[in-house]
Structure formats: structure tokens, C-alpha cells
Amino acid sequence: MSQQLNKQSKTEVGGSGAFAHFREDFLASIVVFLVALPLCIGIAVAVGVSPARALLTGIVGGIVVGFFAGSPLQVSGPAAGLFVIVADLLAKGRDSFISKMAGGEAVAEGEAVAYSLMVLGTAVFLAGLMQIVAGRLKLGQWFRAVSPAVIKGMLAGIGILILVSQFHVMLDHVALWHGEKAHGGLQYLATIPEAIMKCFSADTTVNHHLAALTGILTIACIVVWPMIAPKKLKLLPAALVGITAATLFAAIAGLDIQMLDVSANMFEETTLPTSATWFQLLLDPLVITGAIVIALVASAETLLCATAVDQLHSGVRTDYDKELTAQGIGNVLCGLIGALPMTGVIVRSSANVNSGGKTRASAIMHGIWLLVFVAALPFVLAYIPRAALGALLVHIGFKLVNFKQIKQLWKTSRSEVAIYATTLLVIVCEDLLVGVVVGILLSAAKLLHRFSHLELDLQNEGTVSRLQLHGAATFLRLPALAQKLEEVPDSAELHVEFEHLNYIDHACLDLLMNWARQHEGTGGKLVLDWDKLHGRFSEDPGEKMKVRLANRSPMPLPASGPAKGLARRPA
Q: Are the beta carbons of 371 and 59 closer than 8 angstroms?
């Protein structure tokens, strides 16, 4: 009977009967396609590459990764979370090519761009191989072993970088810093006032104000649509509505603003590897470093997304190792064809679940619709204003900051907020990888402090002494605990309070019991307040962590009762 139920559940969500719910999956795939299309194009514009490279990533993420995925309802494609890494890698690849050619023949801009795209493709290919190896070695769960404060700080930092860089795109403004194109969060942020002032310029040869108006219209539609949309049209994605409204507005009003530049044949945009350059790049430190960063960030983002998707449905849970392997296969293919790297994307995945997707078929079909669009309708993209796509990314960047998460972290621990803020600031001011590493180190330092910090408060009141323990009583604090016990008067009754204790290990328990035997010889007694230790963990059943700790108490009393001289305080 249980085998039949398992078989049935697999058929319902992503199992052997992948097309058992064709109607639901077909409708969901249309919605996901409509969500993915503007996001793919917007991310391509943000990175500074042809839309084809992002759309090809969406196609591979749908058709290939959707087939192999360990999370059947997760939808993969180019993600805003990798925008900073990709843009930085392209810029460094271009600079590296120019520096190599310095003193030689003149460097054509096209050659430098082509080389930077080859750098990106090789890095994505290597990142995919790393993900496949990690998946086969069953390391999927380990990629999730990062503090939530670091992950949220990373996403918020990326969100701010997207916002400040795409704000200029929304105004058709080129951000310049001391005569050169701005690079990095601080430079983009510092040039925003200049971009705003140009919208109020009396110069009639520029139309920054028209681009700004188009961007504001886009954001307004994205924000307002979910509130006013008729019930039958709520499935239409807000992003699509915003881009469509801005495109119609620009076309009807005849606005002289920048439009999306696309080629007639988008498949010509692929960058296939050449043997000579390919093998040289495989050993390039820039490529190797980029591959490691892409693999780590993409894997963490994908598996966190998969966890969130699991909370949205009641079907088969994610196989993290299988999902990691599938992502690796997808990135290997993306690297070979010169497309952008991919991750699992929560916006598309939640749209898939909320629109009724039941199996992996919805993700696969969404990839097919993207392929049909790229093959048959690429000319439609030429009518889309760049300002509208910039506005879409500005909105996405703002949403990534997520102020509600800051409030939740504040309620949990102020130190978590400090880690969050530090990670965010270092990412914005310095570098994504440096920010994540700093955040992880701070989390490790906090953990080390928490499990090595113990405050001991001894109060002697006549024949009764009270010892309160605050923090974690581990073997690292044995000398301090032993010294405090020596201060207890002979023949006194010592009450050890566990109310503020987070953890106590076997070494500290041994010390207490051995001291109790010696203290009994002087006429004294040791009373351990076990009830407060266990009772406080069950006072609030909503706090799952406390309940879990109560069920795994590290210090049960011996079956024969307390040792001689060791008493339990009455309840």
C-alpha cells in the first residue's frame, strides 16, 4: 500500500508520469514564459550583452535542466543575483585583453568584447563542471550551510548594486566617473544626482526626461497591477504588463528614446569556443576565480530557492544533489554556447506553483515557448524601450533588499543584523566575493564566541549559595567554572541555576559531579535546577528550536537517580 502511495505522489509531482497533468502544466508554462521573457531581456540589458544570451539561458534552463531537475517545480534561468559577478567578469576580461595588446597593434572594441564573452563562457563552463562534481559527491546540502544573515545580506547588496546601476539605464544616462564609465556601487551611486538633474535640463537635444517618464510608468504598472487587475487577468505577470504598457506608450507618443538593439537572427549571437583560446582560458586565474564565485553563489541561490519552492507545495521534496547536478549540466551547456549562467529563480518558480504547475513538464514547456519566440519573433524586442527594462531591474533590485527580513533579523538577534549590514556594505563598497567571505567569517566568529562564552555569577547568602550560568558551559570554560566552585563556602548548599544556559557539555557535568562528592565531605550539598533547563524549552511551543533542544537534552539524570550529594530541586 505504501509503495502505491509513493508511486502516486511521484506521478502527481515530477515523477514518472511527467505529463499526467498536461492541462495544468500547459497553462502554468504560459504564465512562466510571460514572467521569464521580460526578466531575461532585462538581465541581459543590465549585464550589457545581447538579449539572446539571456534567452538561451532560459531555454536551456527550461528544456534541459527542467528534465534533469531534482526540484521538479523549480524553474531555472538567468538570475539577477549573478548580475554583479557577470558584469564584473566581462569588464575584467575586456581590460585583460586590452592590457595584453598594449604596445602592439591597435585594439578593436569588437575584439575586446568578443574576448570578454569568451572569458565568461569558459568561467560558466568550469562552474558547471564544479556543480556536477559537487552534486555527484553529495555536497548539495553543504551549499546551504551559510548563515541566513549572510545570504540575505548578499541578496540585498546585489539588489542595491542592480538598483543604482539600472537607475541610469532607466534615464538613458551614461554614468561617467572622472571621464570614464562608472564601475562599482559607489561610483554609480555618486552619479545618480547628475542623472536626475539632466532630466530637468533645458537642453532639447537630450530626452532623459522622456526616458524617466517611461521608466516611472513601467514601475507604476508593476506596483499597481496586482492591486487592480480583474480576477480573470491576475495571472498576467506585472512585469509583462509594465513592459507592454511602456512599449505602447513610447510607440504611440513617438518618443525619441533608446530602444532595445537586437539582431534579426538571435542564434548568431552565440559564442562557440575555439580550441586555442579555450585551453588558454581554462588556466587563466581570472577565469578560475570567476568560475568558483559563479559556482558558489549560483549553487547557494539555487538550493535556497528550492527550499522556498518546497514550502509552496505539498508534493515531492527537493533532491538537492540531483538539483545541483542538473544545474551543473545546464551551466556547462550555457558556457559552451556563450550564454549567461543560470540558477533556480524564485520569481518564475513561485509563478509556476501559483499558476497550477504540477510536474516538471511546465518548466520544460516554458523553455520551448522561449525557443519559439527567439526563432520566430525576435523583431518584437526592437520596440521595447531600454528605459522600461532598466525600470524593471530597479524594481527587482529594490525588492531584493526586503526590509521585512531586516525586522525579522532584528527580532532574532542584533548581531545577525550587524552581520547582514556588514555583508551588504562590503559588497556595495568593495566586491561581492569579499563581502560574502567577510559575512561568513563574522558568522563563524559569532558562533565561536557563543560556544566559548560563559558568565558565572556566584552569590553567597549564609548557608545557601547560588551560581547562575549564562551562555555555553563547554570544556573551554572549565578553568573558570572550577575557580568559581572553589569560592563556595564549605558546608554551603549550592544551587546551580540553568535558566540562562544555552548548552552544557559532559566535561562540565563531570566537574560538577566530582565537585559535589568532594563538597559533601564538608557537609555541603549541590542542587541542580534541572526543571528550569527543561521547562523553559517547552514554555513556547511555537519556537521549534527550543522544542528540538528539549528533545535532545545533553544532560539526562542517571537511571539510578542523582549521585550522592547531588539533589534535584523540587518543582
A: yes
Integer Cα distance of 548 and 342 in angstroms: 36
Nearest to 158 by CA among 354, 416, 433, 405: 433
The predicted-structure confidence for 176-204, as pLDDT tens digits, reads as follows 888 778 878 888 899 999 999 989 887 76
- At 371 the pLDDT is 93
Ramachandran sector of residue 26 (left: φ over 0; alpha: ψ -120 to 50; beta: rest) = alpha
**Grid cell 586565474 — which residue?**
285
List Cβ<8 Å contacts ≥24 apart for 163-166.
163/393, 163/394, 163/397, 163/398, 163/401, 164/188, 164/189, 164/192, 164/397, 165/46, 165/87, 166/46, 166/390, 166/391, 166/393, 166/394, 166/397
Three cell numbers, residue 149: 544573515
| Sole residue written with cell 563556602 | 489
CA atoms of 242 and 526, how far apart (whole Å): 71
Among 283, 347, 352, smallest CA distance to 13 is for: 352
Amino acid identity of residue 195, one-letter, is: A
Domain limits of the chain?
19-444, 454-568
What pLDDT digit, counting tens, does each position of 197-254 carry?
989 887 766 789 999 999 999 999 999 999 998 888 887 888 889 999 999 999 999 9
- Report CA-CA distances (Å) from 166 to 83, 171, 188, 406: 11, 9, 9, 24
Backbone angles phi, psi at 144, to 5 degrees: -95, -5
Reported pTM: 0.75
Q: How far apart are CA 172 and CA 196, in angstroms?
A: 11
- Please identify every stretch of the chain with a pLDDT value under 70, giving residue numbers as ranges: 1-19, 102-107, 144, 204-205, 264, 275-276, 529-571
Reference 192, options 178, 206, 174; nearest CA is 174
Which fold, 454-568? Transcription Regulator spoIIAA (3.30.750)
Per residue in 101-156, pLDDT (tens digit) is: 765 555 677 788 888 899 999 999 999 999 999 999 998 888 767 788 888 888 88
- Residue 173 DSSP label: -
Judge contact between 498 and 508, C-beta under 8 A: no
CB-CB contact of 60 with 396 (8 Å): no
What is the pLDDT, as a whole number, of residue 542?
40
Say how far apart CA 379 and CA 367 lie, in whole Å: 19
Cα gap 262→47, rounded to integer Å = 15
User: What is residue 558's predicted lDDT score, i.e. its pLDDT?
Assistant: 38
Q: How far apart are CA 340 and CA 294, in angstroms?
A: 11
Residue 112 is placed in which grid cell? 575586446
User: 479 near 492, Cβ under 8 Å?
Assistant: no
DSSP sequence for 249-285? HHHHHT----B----S-GGGG-----HHHHHHHHT-H
